[in-house]
Amino acid sequence: MAMKFFSLFAVFITAHGFLLDKPQIVSGQSGTSNQYVTASEIFAETKARHQGEEQLRQYVDKSLAILTSQLEQKFNTLEMSSIKCENQSIPRKVYESLEQKYMDLERKYEDLERKLLSVNNDFNLMKNQLVSVQNKTIEISKDVIVLKQLGNIKPLQEIHTLQQAVQTISVQTHSLSVNERARSQDFLALYNMTIDSKRALSELTMNTSNHLKNLETKTSNQLSNLEHRQNTTAADMNNQFQAITAVNMNTINQLNKLETKTNDQLLKIKQSQNSTAADIITRMDRKEIRDNLTLAMVQKQINNNAERVAMTAYPSAQGTITNAIMMFNDVKYSVGIPNLTAYRTTGKFTCEHEGLYLISASVASYTSGAIYYISLNGNYISETFISENSNNDVHTGAVTITWKLNPNDQVWLFTAGSWYLYDDLRSKLTIIKIR
């Protein structure tokens, strides 16, 4: 019996809850540095709380054991008194009435035990859910560590984005920890209410004991009077029986009031636990959705960075070209470009992976006033003059730009007018996907 009462008290002390505050707005690159909570701090706080719970459990167990022993002694005393009254010729109906009331009390006590067992099962379910949340938090922390280890192959701006996502998760974890303490205070208030009920039960037990003692004293006096007054009329015996019945009815009414009050408190506790469990499940689902979205974004960025695209090409022949696409069809190096045949044939680079690209060209010619363009889907996005000379000296015109390319975009070099293009290593085109 003591362990079942302890289960009820453990629910009030160890249950966890989450009452999330509004998210804090973080600005700058170091806005959440003082909000980060490590897993070791959470585990240390949990261990300290478990130690306090163990001390409280021992105290409550000891108190319940003493209370149980006292109640057993009172019931034994009442049983002995009933046996003594029966041996001293107390009317049979009085004894049967007391026995029936005792059985009713025992049945009601069993009902209370079943209710406490149900409350304990609900608490175990909530505790398992909290452990699941902690495990998910640990897994997310491990994923963040792996992402940080991969940070040396990402651009600086992408690393900053990952850091902000990790800081947001840290703020949410800290908020959950703070509101968990607030929920513990709520359960502490419920525990205080239970202590008050226990005090009321103790007072009622004491009053019941006093009533039983008075009843025993009155019964003993009445039996003594019966021994010395054999001429007592039936009316007097009936009055005495009614007085005893009134005392018993008073005791039963008090027990019924206590049962009603206890049932009301158990109902309130159960409603509060149901509301808390629903709130926890809702917040867990929301957090899981946010975490999944964050991880999906991070995974998408990782996949995009893993798509390496690069090419360096040279003209395979030199000569005079006039208002035409410049054929840099001697590809010295390429990665991530599966269809090089189409490029060598047309001179047009076709984008297959969306991203930010670097386009660099260096063209050598001796023609004075030679001009070439970088064309994107037929629109010029760069114009480069090679030189103005009258001695037919070889000059080089170079250009480097960055541009966002979408799938199926095409880039090529186009000559303006007629001029001589040098081949081999003196003219080159490089295209690299940098992000």
Describe this structure in words.
This protein has six helices and eleven strands. It has 435 residues and is an alpha+beta fold. It has two domains: 2-306, no CATH class; 310-433, Jelly Rolls. The strands form three sheets. The protein has a five-stranded antiparallel sheet with strand order 3-1-11-5-8, with no helix packed on it. The protein has a four-stranded antiparallel sheet with strand order 4-9-6-7, with no helix packed on it. A two-stranded antiparallel sheet has the order 2-10. The longest helix is centred in the middle third of the chain and has 73 residues, at 156-228. The protein is rod-shaped, with a radius of gyration of 44 Å. The relative contact order is 0.10. Mean pLDDT is 76; it is low at 1-6 and 8-34. This is C1q domain-containing protein. Residues 343-416 form the C1q domain. Residues 95-129 form a coiled coil. InterPro entries: C1q_dom, Tumour_necrosis_fac-like_dom. Residues 1-17 form the signal peptide.
